[in-house]
Design a protein that fits this description.
The protein is mainly alpha-helical. It has 3 domains: 87 residues, Tetratricopeptide repeat domain (Serine Threonine Protein Phosphatase 5, Tetratricopeptide repeat), CATH 1.25.40.10; 109 residues; 111 residues, no CATH class. Helix content is 60%, strand content 5%. It has a 4-stranded mixed beta sheet, covered by helices on one side. α1 runs antiparallel to α2 and α3 runs antiparallel to α4.
C-alpha cells in the first residue's frame, strides 16, 4: 500500500476513536484518492458517515466496498446494518411541521456554544418536539401540565439543577434529568431521524417519571422508551441470541437501577435486553397493559404486586420466559 495513503488511513482511525467523525472522513477520502480500491477504508468510511447519520453517503461507501469484495463478511454485516438503520432513520424534512410561537408542552433552549446551528435545523427540531408531544402523549395517555425544558447542547452537558438525579453520563447522546438534554454537535438535516428517536426516547422517560414519581424500574423505563422510540433492529436481536447462548444475560436485579451505574461493557446488553423484553410483553399482553403499569406504580402499588397484577407472573419469570423464547428462535 502507498505509504501516504496508509498514513491517511491510520490518522482516520485515530480520529474515529476520539469520535471526530468529520475529520476521520476527510482522512479516509484523502487515502482513497491514492488507494481507490481499499475495501477496508471504504467500509470504515461508511461507518464514519453512519455515526454522523449521513445515510446516503454511508450507503455509497459501503456499496463500493461490497462491489470490490462481495464475499467479505465484515462488509456484508456492515452493509446490512446500515441499510436497516437508514430505513428507520431516514425521514424527509418535509414531513416535519413548522412551529410558530411557543409550545404549550416544551420550552426549547439552544446552548450558546451551538448558537451557529442553522435556524432551519432548530425549526425542524421544534417540529419534531411538537410531533413527539402528540405521538408519545397519545400512546401513554399523558401530557405534561407545564412546558418541559429541552436543552440542545454540544459536548459536555451543563450541571443539572435537579440534584436528585445522577451526574450526566459522558456516553449518553441525550439525557432526562427533570429537563431533556440532547447533544446536537454532530447532527444536520440528514440526522433528523436520529434526533426524532432520541427525543421520543427522552420524552417517554419524562412521562414515566411524572406518572410513577420516579419509581419505575429501569428495565421497564428503558425498554418502554426504546419501544416507543424505534423498532428493534435484526442485528440487535442477533446480538441478544449470541449473548443468551453464552449465558451472558443480565439478571433483573442488575436492570432495576439506573443504567448509568452499569459496567460500560454491559450497557449495550442492558438496553437491548430491556427493549426486547418489553417488546415481548407488548406482543403477549398488548400495549394498553404496559400503559397501565406506570399508573399502578404511581398510585403506590408495590413493584412486584403491580407486575403480577398486569402480567400474572413475577419479574424473574418474565425474564426466564423471554430467554426461553429467544433460545428457540
Amino acid at each position: 500500500m502507498n505509504l501516504l495513503a496508509k498514513k491517511h488511513f491510520y490518522q482516520a482511525s485515530v480520529c474515529y476513536k476520539r469520535a471526530d467523525y468529520s475529520e476521520a472522513i476527510e482522512y479516509y477520502l484523502a487515502g482513497l484518492s491514492i488507494e481507490p480500491e481499499c475495501v477496508e477504508a471504504y467500509a470504515d468510511l461508511a461507518k464514519s458517515y453512519e455515526m454522523l447519520a449521513c445515510w446516503s453517503q454511508a450507503l455509497r461507501a459501503i456499496n463500493q466496498a461490497f462491489r470490490l469484495r462481495p464475499d467479505d463478511p465484515t462488509v456484508l454485516r456492515r452493509k446490512n446494518r446500515i441499510v436497516e438503520e437508514s430505513s428507520v432513520y431516514s425521514i424527509s424534512a418535509s414531513v416535519i411541521p413548522s412551529v410558530s410561537g411557543d409550545s404549550r408542552y416544551f420550552d426549547l433552549n439552544v446552548s450558546p456554544e451551538i448558537s451557529d446551528m442553522s435556524c432551519d435545523l432548530v425549526q425542524k427540531i421544534s417540529g419534531i418536539l411538537e410531533q413527539t408531544c402528540t405521538f408519545v402523549g397519545q400512546r401513554l395517555h399523558f401530557f405534561p401540565s407545564d412546558p418541559v425544558k429541552v436543552c440542545l447542547e454540544q459536548n459536555r452537558f451543563t450541571k443539572s439543577v435537579h440534584n436528585y438525579f445522577d451526574a450526566f453520563p459522558d456516553w449518553a447522546p441525550a439525557y432526562y434529568d427533570g429537563d431533556i438534554r440532547i447533544r446536537c454537535c454532530n447532527y444536520s438535516m440528514s440526522g433528523l431521524g436520529v434526533l426524532q428517536t432520541l427525543i421520543r426516547h427522552e420524552w417517554t422517560h419524562m412521562i414515566v417519571d411524572l406518572i410513577t414519581n420516579g419509581k419505575c424500574p429501569a428495565w421497564i423505563d428503558e425498554g418502554l422508551a426504546m419501544s416507543i422510540a424505534r423498532p428493534m433492529f435484526s442485528f440487535e436481536m442477533e446480538y441478544l441470541r449470541v449473548a443468551n447462548g453464552n449465558g451472558a444475560m443480565l439478571k433483573p436485579q442488575q436492570l432495576n437501577e439506573s443504567f448509568s451505574q452499569i459496567d460500560s461493557r454491559l450497557r449495550r446488553l442492558a438496553y437491548l435486553q430491556s427493549h426486547a423484553i418489553l417488546l415481548d410483553l407488548i406482543d403477549s399482553f398488548g400495549f394498553s397493559s404496559i400503559c397501565a403499569f406506570p399508573g399502578l406504580i404511581g398510585s403506590g402499588c408495590q413493584l412486584e404486586d403491580a407486575i403480577k397484577k398486569i402480567f400474572g407472573k413475577t419479574t424473574i419469570q418474565i425474564f426466564l420466559d423471554w430467554q426461553k423464547k429467544i433460545g428457540m428462535d
